[in-house]
Amino acid sequence: MEKVENEEIDRRKLLERLGIMGASGLAVYLAGTLQPNAVFAASKPSEIKKTVADVTFHYGMVIDTKRCVGCRSCVLACKAENKTPPGVYYTVVVDQVLDNRPDDKPTFMTKPCFHCEHPSCVNACPVSATFKRKEDGIVVVDYDRCIGCRYCITACPYGARWFDFGENYPAVAEKTNYAEVPSPEYNKFIKREPEKSPIGNVRKCTFCMHLQDENGKYNKQTGHWPACAKTCTGHAIFFGDFNDEESDVYRLIRERQYIRLKEELGNAPNVYYLL
Amino acid sequence: MSRNIFEKYDSKSLKKIFWAVGGLCFILGLYGWYDRFAYGHIHAHYGSVVTWGLWIAAYIYFIGLSAGSFLVSSLIYVFNIKAFEKIGRLALFTAIVTLVLALLSVWADLGHEFRAWHVIVYANFTSPMAWMIYLYSFYVLIILLEFWLVNRKDFIVGAQTQDWKGKIYRILALKSKDISDQSVERDHRWVKILASIGVPVAIMFHGGVGALFGVVAARPHWHSGLFPILFLLSALVSGGALLAMVSIIFQDGYNKNKDTVILLGKMVLGMLILDVIFQVSEFLVAFRGGIPGHIAGLQMVISGKYWPVFWIWQVFLGTVVPIVILSSKLKNSAFYVGLACLFIFVGIFGLRLNIVIPGLAVEEIKGLATAVTSQRANVLYFPSLTEWMLTIGVSGLGMLMFGLGEILLPKEKHQE
Hints:
The structure holds two protein chains of two kinds.
Chain A: H1 2-34, H2 38-42, H3 45-52, E1 59-64, H4 73-82, E2 92-96, E3 107-111, H5 120-124, E4 130-132, E5 139-141, H6 151-155, E6 161-163, H7 170-173, E7 202-204, H8 227-231, E8 237-241, H9 248-255, E9 258-259, E10 271-274
Parallel strand pairs in A: 1-10
Antiparallel strand pairs in A: 1-8, 2-3, 4-5, 6-7, 9-10
Chain B: H1 11-39, H2 54-77, H3 88-109, H4 118-121, H5 128-158, H6 164-172, H7 181-214, H8 227-250, H9 258-289, H10 292-303, H11 307-327, H12 334-360, H13 368-371, H14 385-408
Helix pairs in contact in B: 1-14, 2-3, 2-7, 2-8, 2-12, 3-5, 3-14, 5-6, 5-7, 7-8, 8-9, 8-12, 9-11, 9-12, 10-11, 10-12, 11-12
C-alpha cells in the first residue's frame, strides 16, 4: 500500500512538473507568435490610424448603368494594375439578357467589391484576417494571417472574393520580364512564388488602396485613382468619398435614382448603381 | 429468419477484406497527398464560385460519424443503457478515428495548411468556424481522456506481458499501476462525468458545423434554422450505422454480438425516419414559399445535373432500401441489418455532397459564373483525380486505424 502511495506522489510530482514545463513552453511560444512583425504591424488598423490622425474617409463607388457599354476595360485595367493571376478578378462585368427577349439590349454591370458597411466576410473569417479598415472603410485581407479556408467566399453575397490557386498567365509562367513585376497591392510588392502568399489566400478588390497618399487620400488629377474608375471608357464608374460634399459620389446619389444589390441582406454596400 | 450464403463470411474473412481494401485505399491516397503538397490546389476542381468541394463534404461526413458515435457511446456511459454496453469502447474508438479523418480532410482543404494554428491564436469569435475549432479541441481532450480511462485497467494488465504489445501497453498505461476495484470504480465515475460534459459539447460542435453553413445568409440553400438539427440527426444515423458495421466486423456481430447489432438497427431506423421527416419539411416549406433564391439549390438537387446523387444515391440507396430492410422481417438478421447500415453509411455521403455543392453552385449574382472565362468561375463542379484520391486515402487510413485498433486495443470483456 505504501508503495502505491509513493507511486501516487511521484506521479503527481511528475504531472506537476510536466504541467509547469508545458505552460511555460506555451507562454514562450505564444509570446513569440503574438509579436507582430513589421509588415503585419503596418496593416493593423490601429497602427495606420496614428498616421491618419482623426481624418476618416468613407470611400465608395457610384456606377451609372446607363453609361456602361460593357467594354470590360475595367476588368483589364484592374488586372494590369493589381497583376492578378488567372481565376482572380477584383472586378467583373456581368451581362444579363432580359427574360424571354434574347434579342433585346443586354444590361451590363461592373461589379467590384462593395466594401459593405456590414460585411458578411469579416464576421465569417475565423482568424480576423479580413477586416474593414476603420479609417476609410476598405475591406482588406491580411495575406500573412489568412489560412485559405474560403469561408469568406461562401459568406460574401456578391461573389467579390477569389481564391488564388497559384495559376499564372503564360507571361509569368514562362518567366518573361513581366514575371519580375510584382503586384503593388497593399504597397507590399510581393514577388509571386509557389506556395507563398498570396497564393493559397483569398483575394479581393481594395479600391486600389496602394494608390492612396500617406494621409489616405486619392488624387484623380495625378492618376492616383482606382484603376477601373480611371479607365472606364463611358465614364460610368464614379469613385470618391461619401463624406466629401464636393465629390461626385456624394452628389450623384442625391441627384439620381439608385439601387444597391440585395438590400434585404442588410450588408449595406458602398457601391451604388444608378438607374 | 432468412439465411444467406454471404453469412458464411464470418468476422475473420470480413477482417481480411477490410485490411485489403483499407491498404489499397491508403496507397491510392498517397498520390492525392503527394499532388496536394507538391502542387497546392492547382489540380483541384473547386474554384471561387463552388469554392468547397469533395474535401469539405468528406469533412462534414466524417465529423458527423464522430459526433454520432460519441453520442451513441454516451447512451452507455451517461444514460447507463446496458443493451449497448458491448459497443461502448468501440464507439469511443470510432469517434476518435473518424475525428482524425475529418480533421485531415479539412486540413487538406486549407489554402495554407501550415497556418492551421492561426485559428487557435487569432480566433475571431464572430465566426462559427472559430467556435468550432475551440469546441473540437475541447472534444479531443474529453474523448481521449475518456477513452484512456475506460481502457486503463486493460492497459495495465496488458503491460505485464513481455512481447511488443506489452511495450505499447506500458506506454499507453502512462505509468498508472493501480488496478484495484476502487480505482476502476473511480475511473467509471470520471468516465460518467466526462461523457456527461461530452454530450453537450458534441451537440454544440456538430450542431455548430450545421450552424457554420446555416448562418451563411448569402447562400439560401444553407440558410435555414433546420440545418443544425439536420446535421445532428444525420450524424446519429450515420454514426449508428457505422457502429453496427464495425461491430459486425470486429466483434463477430453475426454471432456473439448479434443482439447489439439488431438493436442498433432499430435505433438507426428511428433516427433515419426522423431525419427524412425534417428533410421533407425543409423541401415542402421552401417549394411552397417559392422564393426563387431559396429553391434554386433544391431544384438543382432534385433535377439539376447531379440528380442521380440525390435520387439514386441519397434517396434510393441511402434511404428507401435501408428503411425497407430495417422495417421488414429482415431486421432480425444481423447480416441484413449490417447491409442496411452499409447502404445508409454510403447514402449519407450523398447527403453531405448535396449540402455542400448545390449551396455554392447557384450564382450569387446572375451572370457571375459566365462573366469571365475561367474554370475557377464555373458553377459545374466535379471533383478532380487528386481530390478523389486524397479522400479515398483518408478513408483507407481510417480502415487501417480500425485494423490497428483491433490488434492493439483490449477486446471488450464479454468476449473472453
